[in-house]
Structure formats: C-alpha cells, structure tokens
Amino acid sequence: MATAATTLTLSLIFLSFFNVINRNNLVSAAATTDPAASFIRTSCKVTTYPAVCVESLSAYASTIHKSPRQLVMTALSVSVKRAESTKAFVAKLTKFHGLKPRERSALKDCLEEVSDSVDRLSKSVRELKKMDRARGPEFAWHMSNLQTWVSAALTDESTCMDGFAGRAVNGRIKTSIRARMTNVAQVTSNALALCNKFAGQY
Fold first, then answer.
1. d(Cα 176, Cα 182) in Å, to the nearest integer?
2. Sign of the CA dihedral with 101 first, then 103, 107, and 110 last
3. Which of 10, 40, 53, 80 is least crowded, fewest Cβ atoms below 10 Å from its Cβ?
4. Whether pLDDT at 8 is above 50
5. DSSP the chain
6. Would you state the pLDDT for residue 73?
7. Cβ distance 75 to 190 under 8 Å?
8. Which are the contacts of 104, defined by CB distance < 8 A and separation ≥ 6?
9. From the centroid of its chain, how far is CA 150?
10. What pLDDT does residue 90 have?
11. Interval 64-93 mean pLDDT
12. pLDDT tens, 135-180?
C-alpha cells in the first residue's frame, strides 16, 4: 500500500510539473506569435532599459498594435502616470512630522523637480497629438519640442535624486525616493529613446 501511495504521489507531482511547464510554454508561444508583443520587444531594444520598457508597455499591446506613433504615445503616457504617482508620494512625505531639516529641504526640492517633470511630459503628450498629420518641417518642429521637453523631464528627475546623494539624508525616505525616481527616470529615458527612433523614421 505504501508503495502504491508513493507511486501515486510521484505521478501526481510529475503531472503537476508537466502542466506547469506546458502552460508556461503556451504562454511563451503566445507572446512570441503575438505581432504586437513582438513589435514592442523589438522596439524596446533601442532603449537603455529594454526589460523595463517591455514590462511597462506590454499591458498596452492591444492599443499599440504595430504603430510606432502609438508606441511613443503610450511610452509617454506611462511616464506621465508614474511621474504623477511619484509626485503624490513625495508630496505626502513633505507633510511627515519629525523630518530633519536636510530631509525636508531635499523633499521640497524634489517635489518641485517632479512637478516640472510632470508638466513637461504632459506637454510632450499634447505635442505628439498635434503631430497626427504633420509632415516635413512641421513634423520636425513638433518633434524637436517633444524631444526637448522629455529630455528636460529626465534632467528634472535626475536632479531630484541628486538631492538625496551622500550621507546627509539616509534611511527609508532616501531609499523609497530613490527607488521611485529611478523607475520614473528609466521609463522616461526609454520614452526619449523611442521618440528619437520615431523621429528618425521621417
């Protein structure tokens, strides 16, 4: 009986393992054959953080399809959302009691920088919408504005993180701010790379 029970248990474990492997293979195969997912992965190769790029855009594959313009629009929109979320997070931290003077100062400066980043990224989204039918010099003008604003937003995000460098600010506040700002900076950097690639197609 013990042997039969052991055999049954092993069979069930093997079957469960086989099902997991098979399910993962099916998911992988589906991702490989999905044109939109493949387009996103290929496009993200030009970015500095391709894994972050794919992770942040894959959920919007059905919207992006294989459109370079929609890819850029989505990348910018993701950057705006994450920057807005980080802005709200920093704003809450500035209201904490017991902050050291250096921490409060760094948070206020960061909030200003993130606010500027949100504004510039939002301008970039609006600028891209104006480019729907733009061609030639008009396209180049709008694209130049867009690239300038996204680049400036990236600088804002970097400036915020610089305020938490060194040993003057330590602990959970520094760790949480830098983690969030790093993610925002990465998606913004990726958006800029995709913007540059899109600009080069015209």
1. 10
2. positive
3. 10
4. no
5. -HHHHHHHHHHHHHHHHHHHHHHHHHHHHHHHH-HHHHHHHHHGGGSS-HHHHHHHHGGGHHHHTT-HHHHHHHHHHHHHHHHHHHHHHHHHHTT-TT--HHHHHHHHHHHHHHHHHHHHHHHHHHHHHHTTT--HHHHHHHHHHHHHHHHHHHHHHHHHHHTT-SSSS-SHHHHHHHHHHHHHHHHHHHHHHHHHHHHTT-
6. 96
7. yes
8. 94
9. 13
10. 94
11. 95
12. 777 788 888 999 999 999 999 999 998 888 876 676 788 888 989 9
Rama region for 136: left / alpha / beta (φ>0; ψ in -120 to 50; rest): left
Mean pLDDT of 41-54: 96
Question: Angle formed by the axes of helices 136-162 and 101-130, to 10°?
Answer: 170
Residue 86: half-sphere exposure toward Cβ, Cα within 13 Å = 33
Which residues lie closer than 8 Å to 61 by C-beta, 6 or more apart?
A: 34, 36, 37, 40
Global pTM? Answer: 0.80
Sign of the CA dihedral with 146 first, then 148, 150, and 152 last? negative
- As given in the structure block, the two tokens for residue 62 are 């059905």
Using the predicted structure, report yes or no on whether residue 16 has a pLDDT greater than 90: no
Residues 6+ apart with CB under 8 A from 110: 90, 160, 163, 164, 177, 181
